[in-house]
Amino acid sequence: MTERKREILAASQNVLKEKGYAATSVRDIAKALSMEPASLYSHFKSKEDILKITCFDMADKLEIGIAEVNDIYFNAEEKLRTAINLHVKVLTQNLNSAMIFIRDWRNLTGKSLDQFILKRNAYEAGFREIVQTGINEGIFNETDKKFAALTILSSVNWIVEWYKEDGSLSSEQIATKLSDFILSGLKKDTV
Amino acid sequence: MTERKREILAASQNVLKEKGYAATSVRDIAKALSMEPASLYSHFKSKEDILKITCFDMADKLEIGIAEVNDIYFNAEEKLRTAINLHVKVLTQNLNSAMIFIRDWRNLTGKSLDQFILKRNAYEAGFREIVQTGINEGIFNETDKKFAALTILSSVNWIVEWYKEDGSLSSEQIATKLSDFILSGLKKDTV
DNA sequence: ATATTTGCCTAACGAACGTTAGTTTGTGAG
DNA sequence: CTCACAAACTAACGTTCGTTAGGCAAATAT
User: Most-buried pick from A31, A107, B2, B181 (CB within 10 A)?
Assistant: First the structure.
């Protein structure tokens, strides 16, 4: 990927995140780049190509994280905290892509869509595995694994809706708060 | 709203939930109803009208719930459990609308969009108020209120992505599980 | 029996869509 | 100086989009 292509990709994502993939036209993207719509096709072979690259790029970034975490040994709590931390970092450091990745992947078609869903399921399975580890170790409640993994991911993914780079919370702080919340809940320990 | 209009609305929502508002054409909706695109305009004055009705209808349903909960006195935990229960019920009992409401509200324009955002903020404030009550009562952790409310809502809203009416979990069971999760977290009590 | 309304139709509008073909322009290498 | 290549351009393609105008038939009200 050339420098220029990366540049155009970034600008495209900046436009796509605003109104969503389906509601954004190729002409919208071109306008943001002060170029003609047709010129985009020197770099990308279709509008969906931009979506595909964005989604799979994010999926890869996340996949690498969870694989690392599950390979290196930690206890389950450490594992989960690390996984959440990495996830939050990837999202907040790629906020535009993250929003497109989470919200617009449904607009993929054909084989791309199938492949994406496979990747997504694999990632979810990684989280389920961590939960299972915790249950085995006897430190997590015997909760429905799938349910827990989905609930964790949903609360983590939603940050793209409200996170602002100039906000009061850093990526690290968010990850810590979220981990605390997920692990210990809202209720005070009555110890 | 006439019987027929309600019927067409429901069918429209069933189509819209699949590919999303922006990616669904008026012709798609008409096809699902075995009628001509133009005929829809006997009932709705625009495509966005359908979105608007759907979003505000859901917002109203949720608003009614949270107002009730906050009026009647409960302790904070009861309050939160009831609010979550109502929220989950509204979502699962209107699954198509719920998905559109959560995912596609951004496609509203002008005054509708502004009004919707106001409603949404008010609803979030309702949840924040419950969290505040719990902090005042000394039973919730002194966590960032806005953060907690957003995290709660995100995990609750995400159920529209995976809830199936014929699934193994009833709406009640989901609400209970979610409430437990949110209140007590994943970690076992070390009491 | 007649008038009104409801619900859908056919036909078509102008605008916007994603994309292609073919061409020009600028830049760096031989 | 020329050649090669990348990156942009102009112009336009066929398609689909949301929507409107106007009419027709059946149901409902008078």
Answer: B181
